[in-house]
Amino acid sequence: MVRVTADAPGRDRMTSIVRNQWYVAAYGREIGREVFGRTICGESILFWRREDGTVTAMSDRCVHRRFPLSEKPSHLVGDTVVCGYHGFTYDADGKCVAVPGQTRVPRTARLKSYPVVEQDSFVWVFIGDDDRSDSVPIPRAPWLDQEGYTTVSGMEPLAARASLLVDNLMDLSHETYLHGGYIGTPEVANTPITTEVDEDAQVVYVSRHMDDADCPPFYAKSTGIQGRIVRWQDIEFHPPCLYLLHSRVAPVGVLPDEDGSDPGGFHVEVVYAITPETEHSTHDFWAVARDFALEDEGVSDFLRESNRTVVLQDVVALDALERVLAGEPDGYQELSINIDTGGLAARRIIAAQAAAGAEQVPDSPATLASR
Amino acid sequence: MAPTRVLDGDRVTRVAWLPGSDRLLGECSCGSRAEGGDPIGMWEWLLAHPDHPAQVTEPDAGTPVDHVPPPHRVLRPEQAAGPRTPLR
């Protein structure tokens, strides 16, 4: 059964990036006592660590002649960043504290400063109106930085708009490395896939809970489980950025305890952070955490290679898809079928978030300079 | 087919699907349930809360049997597929 859906007219002419939200900008390990630049949601941002170890973020363009502060020979001096072109110097709040050749620092000599939170091995940055950052919660993935879990992670650049990656990750026929095919294993015939949407929490949840299934060789080898298993595969998507895939296996009949603890279960947590770079490119952060075989380098290598392989396959496919979509005339037709149930729910929430978060395009430096 | 219930908020909608089956089972937070043939019709029906229509709109409703699709237009060179070398 198919349904043809006409896309919203003018979609490509409006920004599709959801503003007034938190986005993963980097892994904590990428940011140190050196200048680091990355474009997030179309904004050029500079990241660095203060001497006390906390991360700060500000515009990556010198107010003088727009030189990128992340480019050599720009460098840090204590808790200031010195522009490599003429030496304009900014403090950790983005305020210019010294300019060459004079003592007066112009009042507009200041970089936009961004709210930053370092949590769960990520550096999160707020894109939008700073005053709204406190009212928007940051979704959690605590196992990425927690005792009892071993994590492998990376990031791949994607030359495609973020919505294509969301569609891809919510697509039920998308093969996950964990079990050689989300659809098509013997238990499929008896296991419904349930898509749930919590309007208040703005979460899309897609769950597949098998009470009695074959144990794939990978799990049998790494967990030591013999015989059949209970398998839960749950997607938990917090639009627009954080995607979690919970995978739980345990011997048949072994369920979590009443109090929520789960000593009998083995867990793999796959995490993606979908962060737009521009309207047509995305930072594809990926991580896999597990609470078993913690010291086993072989399991780490397998999970790292498997996940990276799958991510790269998606990157190749989505890069190609972006090329054919870019510049299409309005009103192109799509078909949606049952596998798209979760993806359509995610699109709707993101569209509502985009409308709620929409604001005027931020002032350009040229506008500010003329005041 | 009973949907899995993981989320426990006040405004949770659910759609259950047996892979390979043509039917979806939708459940609104108000308790209303309906069956449908595709997710477009199903989400429309669910989002109509509290005024759920009697039926979910079925796919292909209104599409003529002899539907003729339009061509898919290509505007820019980078959208054009195929080898980019001359054929000799």
Automatic annotation (TrEMBL), chain A:
Coiled-coil stretches noted in the UniProt entry, renumbered to this chain: none
InterPro entries named among the record's database cross-references: Cholesterol_7-desaturase, Rieske_2Fe-2S, Rieske_2Fe-2S_sf, VanA_C_cat
GO MF term set: 2 iron, 2 sulfur cluster binding; metal ion binding; methyltransferase activity; monooxygenase activity; oxidoreductase activity, acting on paired donors, with incorporation or reduction of molecular oxygen
Keywords: 2Fe-2S, Iron, Iron-sulfur, Metal-binding, Methyltransferase, Monooxygenase, Oxidoreductase, Transferase
SUPFAM superfamilies assigned: Bet v1-like, ISP domain
Alphabetized Pfam families for the sequence: Rieske, VanA_C
GO biological process: methylation
Domain Rieske: residue ranges: 22-125
Name of the protein: Vanillate O-demethylase monooxygenase subunit
Source organism of the structure: Klenkia taihuensis
Automatic annotation (TrEMBL), chain B:
Annotated region described as Disordered, given as residue ranges: 53-88
Organism superkingdom: Bacteria
Protein name as annotated: Uncharacterized protein
Species of the source: Klenkia taihuensis
Lineage of the organism: Bacteria, Bacillati, Actinomycetota, Actinomycetes, Geodermatophilales
